[in-house]
Amino acid sequence: MAEGGVIRVSGDSEAREAVGEYKAGWHDPENSTIRFDFGLSEEVVRQISELKEEPEWMTDIRVTERPMPTWGNMSMLEEIDFENICYYLKSSDSTERDWEDVPEDIRNTFERLGIPEAEQKWLSGVTAQYESEAVYHSIREDLEKQGVIFLDMDSGLKEYPEIVKKWFCSVVPYSDNKFSALNTAVWSGGSFIYVPEGVHVEMPVQAYFRINAKNMGQFERTLIIADKGSSIHYVEGCTAPSYSTDSLHSAVVELVALPGSHIRYSTIQNWSSNVYNLVTKRGIAHEDAKIEWVDGNIGSKLTMKYPAVILKGEGSHAEVISVAYSGEGQHQDAGAKIHHLASNTTSKILSKSISKNGGRGTYRGMVTVSPKADNCKLNVVCDALILDEGSRSDTYPTMEVANPSARCEHEASVSKVSDDQLFYLMSRGHSEEESLAMIVNGFFEPFTRELPMEYAVELNQLMALEMEGSIG
Amino acid sequence: MSAVDCKMSGQSTLLEIRDLHVGIDGNEILRGIDLKMGPGEIHAIMGRNGSGKTTTANVIMGHPDFDVEKGDVILEGESLLELEAWERARKGVFLSFQYPQAVPGLQVGNFLRKSVASIRGEDEAKGSVFREELTSAMESLDIPRSFMSRYVNDGFSGGEKKRFEILQLMLLKPRLAVLDETDSGLDIDGIRTVSEGVNAAIRGTDSAALIITHYSRILEHVQPDMVHVLLDGRIVASGGPELATKLEERGYEWLKEE
Fold first, then answer.
1. List of chain A residues whose C-beta atoms are within 8 Å of the C-beta of residue B25
2. B101, B166, B169, B178, best to mutate vs chain A, most A CBs in 10 Å
3. A441–B105: do the CB atoms touch at under 8 Å?
4. Among the ranges given (A34-43, A269-278, A388-397), the one the predictor scored with the smallest mean pLDDT
5. Domains of chain B: residue spans and CATH
6. Which strand ranges, in their side-by-side order, compose the sheet holding B234-239?
7. pTM for the whole structure
8. ipTM
């Protein structure tokens, strides 16, 4: 597999040497400055808050009940050993604005992942999180001058407590599900973004999340507020070392799109196959605002992620475009949730999943239209491609439409790669593996074309690597 | 036959099919086919449905579903039978498919560039020379520019699919082009355009084309040097272009009686 950027392959020859191997799977020695014992208790939660010198209201929010979620792959969730997870680990004393000041081994990791290079070339700002805390953070000066706030979440809380207090948990209440509550209890790191009225952030900002330690729990918390008529594109990537024991990544992301604003949130997660990736992502779109989730799930052992949009304001629009690749031992349980609460709101869901080598892909979706919401339009398309006999794909689309004026469209397809398709491509000089990669990348194309070009290229190379050695 | 003979015959023979027996799922479809083609030649194989025409095309290209029970397919002195389809393509074999497959999401322009790179070499698929070659081939086949950003055969009409096959033929510059029912599903103008493409790719070169067809229509535009008639897995008659005319007038029945 690939390393860096989100997933960076430094050249075909190098990529080929690593066939069948997760390329971001190396790990550094664990040089932690603060490390909590395994397991979770109220004491641990209070210690984290104390360590961060937080205001009391935040400590109170952290200490909450934790109901288990009611949908998703329940039996696989039961396997998580919550007592064998480290809930807080700090490897660097501070968040730096200059890569030179980041501890060398951590800096090397992000260099191998290609982050500083990408930052120079095409990003407006970068935050790099290592274990529980951000180790590097920067934003372009011109954006700072326009009043754009882009900080790690802890600094955001310190510097802008009134904004954080107003919106924190306003989109994802702490009682929402076990994993959002767990995140609310032990959150650390993540991004805090505020885009002032009318400001358009032209180039994307990127966050990169790296887990290094064994049995680590990473619980970043992200809050993005786009004020009236503003726009921003946020991109995140994730990798971790391959260990035989499990790690847990449980993030909460809240988006607030105020009237007329536009937030696009793109993710490509390429966690190693020992990571449980259980993420709650939700946005609220006010009048004429637009929220787009572009969500790629390639790695992890189990992912449960259903980016959601609440269309609260009239004329608002939601899009969730996602791809999932499930290989051996993987289950990608992903989808989308969209709630049409206001009239003239529109939504579009496009889900593409590929399963191979016994992998399992699930589309789980929920779209609702409330009785008061007139003239809503919703469109759901889910396509699955199954590459071999033992692999599996399931689709669970739910639509609850309580207003008869809604226009709903739903399409689903399941297909297999045919021998004739492969023969056709092979007759044009492409090996069987290259031909399969062409079919697979073509299948993902409606997703890849939504990505910044750098990511699209890397995703294609990553999938080509996944197809190697797959012809038996 | 000794190695020396092989090499010598390779100089004047581009393709040799020798006593080819082919089956699928235990049923014998080709029952001993012999055929020789020299550089620059165009041959036609005619026959009714089920006579083994498409099987012949697929076996030359290397479709994995067919079992070659006996015989050989030799291109320029080298047996193709052990090679996979993509290796044969790189040796210069091309098949224009009767039913080209759709690959949603794979853009035509991207696919053509990759195919030219893999068959003719990376350098051939780069720069202005390739772009000009592409533009002129597309113009000669009446293919609009917008075609480049469409997905391979996805939502193409029958005529568009056939034109796209011939576009690939012109760009990939094979040593041996096998055209399987390229004329089916085309109107008169389509047949004329496609035939001009075939003539441009083969005539005056040292490549060869094997045209597999049900009707003689395409042969009015692409004059074959030889016509072979396939019946129940055997070549029962071979001759000049006049054989095609005779088949058009009298059908296939008389051959069965002979």
1. none
2. B101
3. yes
4. A34-43
5. 3-257 (3.40.50.300)
6. B93-96, B176-180, B208-213, B42-46, B226-231, B234-239
7. 0.85
8. 0.94
